[in-house]
Here is the input.
Amino acid sequence: MITAKTKLALIGLVFFGPLMLATWMYSSGNLTPEGSSNNGALLTPVINIGDALPDSAVIALADGNWLMLYTDTRACSDACRDALYRQRQTRLMLGKEMDRVVRVFLHGDSAIDKVFLEGEHPGLKTINDKALGNLLEEKRPQDMMPGGIYLFDPLANLVMYFPPDLEPRDMVDDIKHLLKLSRIG
Here is the structure.
């Protein structure tokens, strides 16, 4: 026969047992997540371009808009054209949310093919900002290939980097998630 003290101990174990087990698993590291759900790389610490580069042309573009920025300081090669195409397709795949995102091409001193850009990429904003290019290269995760796309929030904070081999649908998943959570832009 079960005594009153045993019953009380069992009731206490039902309530406090899971709490003690969870505390032990968390403190021992058994419950920490292995990965993340995002496909791109979150850039931390957050860099505000307005603070870092107050004269950058990207600040005016970010005013109330999310920015997808591709940078290539050389003449626009096939890889550059492919990246601009991926950037355009990613924005189109956002559907009704695409008006919240502006595409930007940060080019170098070499002349850009304006006929190509106007014909193939209407609405693409182009800027030449060497200081911004240097900052972005410095903030790019070193374990990821260069030539990807950067994402800025409407306050001109550098948020994410998408490597060049990432599929547009994976970029769309991350961007839609951020747009859904965002109360700005």
Q: What stands out?
A: The two ends are 67 Å apart (CA to CA). The first helix runs from residue 4 to 28. The beta strands are 41-48, 66-72, 101-107, 125-127, 149-152, 157-162. The CA atoms of residues 35 and 126 lie 35 Å apart.
